[in-house]
Amino acid sequence: MAMKKKRYALVIDSRKCINCKACVVACKAENEVPVGNFRNWINEDRQGEYPKLRMDFEPEQCHHCEHPSCARVCPTGATWQRKDGIVLVNYDECIGCRYCMVACPYDARYFHEESGTVHKCTLCSHRVDKGDVPACVETCPSKVRVFGDLEDPSSRIHELLATRRHRVKEPQTGNGPQLYYLL
Amino acid sequence: MHEFNWGLLIVVYLFLGGLSAGLFFAAGLANYLEVDGQPAYPRIARMGALLAPWPVAIGSGLLILDLGNWYRFYKLFTHFRWESPMSIGSYLLTFFTLIAFVYAFAWLPEDWRQQLFAKVPASWKQAHRLNVDLSAHRKVIAMVGFPFAIGVGIYTGVLLGAVSARPFWNTNLVAQMFLFSALSSGAAALLLAMVLDRRNPIETHETKFLITLDIVFIVLELFIILPYLIHGTLSVLAVKQALWLILGGPYTLVFWVFFLGFGLLAPLGIEVYELAPSLLKGHAFHGSRNLALTASGLVLVGGFLLRYIFVYAGQMSSFHKMGALH
């Protein structure tokens, strides 16, 4: 029997985010991200003046786009996309030209000084392949992130996207980003 | 503070790559022009041919040094990815550099060639087989090289223009702008080299040819820059905000004063001032040495600044951060 098609994605309920940055710390520990570099981060948006003011927190990381511009411009094919949608860098093939960093509309990549290659969020593919969820998802105390397979009708993210209004960031780039933000 | 992934080495490489393309084009063109059955500009053709391969060779070296893993550069040639401008560009650049070297070899004076091979040990028999006179094939080599020279000139712009994430770059005009800037730089560099070569003083008809060529390319470049600015300011918000980088933002001064003023309009003015009396009133063309030096020097500075502005400002432009700039 053929393997059922998978499409991994993240749904983010940013209204639940309290900016504790546990996801950032968990990612750093899990993936040995160097000091000064980040695979995920939290955007802060403050508007208005006291007493009429508002502050939003919005976690972000690689969007694991449907049509990743980073993979398109890579001259060696080091950046590639798995069948389940996860966009990865093959570090052995990366020559460190940083064209992908220039081409990423979300600035989700960083240059790993020690290896001279470009790194980014892997959606913790090493954990996902064992049946676990990404470290940022597991650690979040307010359950902001929901990880799952869009092709699986019984999954929680399938249900969330079917029943809740949501948006993606900068869809006009044509990249088809797969981080879904609930409204 | 925005982090720049591509820095000065890339700027220099884009400039040198374009410069070689322009040198090759101008030299190849001069090689084809004849008056009464005799080559019209043989010294321009030779000077350009001998100079053309070096800037791109140095530029490619810088490009490799800029890589995170420079020794992995060979991987560019173990893959071909037609969707990646950099992949296509690597092949273009390699073929162009090779052809430019062959073309320079075909223009080597006989005694230079013999001196060169005298330095090669006599035991290297295969190397001495290369000691052949290619001067009869110059036109063919130039013709083969033209598409590659134009390709390199265009590709340096496409490399940036193809990045949809950077609104400052993402227009086909960048490729044309870089091409005409490259061709203009090539003509100017030839003029500069010929004027500086005191052993073989430049003749007025040669100055006139190079100045005419440069005027044509500068005017074409201007015709690309104007629509770039006009369309940009009339475009969607992201592009409009990106254009702010040179319309009030941090690159405004360098764009308008140093690039457009000193690097484009000033040399254009000087060259038109030189050419106009002979063109419009039939006066003899004099060709001031100092004005030729000034104009060609300014064109080269302008060509460099254009790439500087585009590489840096382009990386600052983006779909999601630009709002914060205002």
In the sheet with the most strands of chain A, the strands line up as 8-1-10-9
CATH C-level category of chain B: Mainly Alpha
The CATH topology of chain A comes to Alpha-Beta Plaits
SSE order of chain B, as H and E? HEEHHHHHHHHHHHH
Give the tags:
heterodimer, A: alpha+beta, Alpha-Beta Plaits, four-stranded mixed sheet, two-stranded antiparallel ribbon, globular, B: 326 residues, mainly alpha, Formate dehydrogenase/DMSO reductase fold
Short description:
By secondary structure, chain A is α+β, with helices and mostly antiparallel strands. In chain A, 20% of the residues lie in helices and 26% in strands.
Task: Give a structural overview.
The complex is a heterodimer of chains A (183) and B (326). Chain A is of the alpha+beta class and 183 residues long. Chain A has a single domain (8-182), classed as Alpha-Beta Plaits (2-Layer Sandwich). Chain A is 20% helix and 26% strand. Chain A is built from 6 helices and 10 strands, in the order βαββαββαββααβαββ. In chain A, β2 (40-49) and β3 form a beta hairpin. The N and C termini of chain A lie far apart (39 Å). Chain B has 326 residues and is mainly α. Chain B has one domain (8-325): Formate dehydrogenase/DMSO reductase domain (Formate dehydrogenase/DMSO reductase fold). Chain B is built from 13 helices and 2 strands. In chain B, a hairpin with a 2-residue loop joins β1 (34-35) and β2. Chain B is globular, with a radius of gyration of 21 Å. The model of chain B has no long low-confidence stretch (mean pLDDT 93). The A-B interface holds A 69, 72-77, 93-99, 101-107, 111-112, 115-118, 169-170, 172-175 and B 5-6, 66-69, 72-73, 75-76, 78-79, 81, 83-87, 90, 162-166, 238, 315, 318-321.
List the helices and strands and how they pair.
The complex is a heterodimer of chains A (183) and B (326).
Chain A: E1 8-12, H1 22-31, E2 40-49, E3 52-61, H2 69-73, E4 79-81, E5 87-89, H3 99-103, E6 110-112, E7 117-119, H4 125-128, H5 135-139, E8 145-149, H6 156-163, E9 166-167, E10 179-182
Parallel strand pairs in A: 1-10
Antiparallel strand pairs in A: 1-8, 2-3, 4-5, 6-7, 9-10
Chain B: H1 8-32, E1 34-35, E2 38-39, H2 42-51, H3 53-66, H4 85-107, H5 110-118, H6 125-128, H7 138-161, H8 173-196, H9 204-233, H10 237-243, H11 252-280, H12 289-316, H13 322-325
Helix pairs in contact in B: 1-2, 1-3, 1-7, 1-8, 1-12, 2-4, 2-8, 3-4, 4-7, 7-8, 8-9, 8-12, 9-11, 11-12
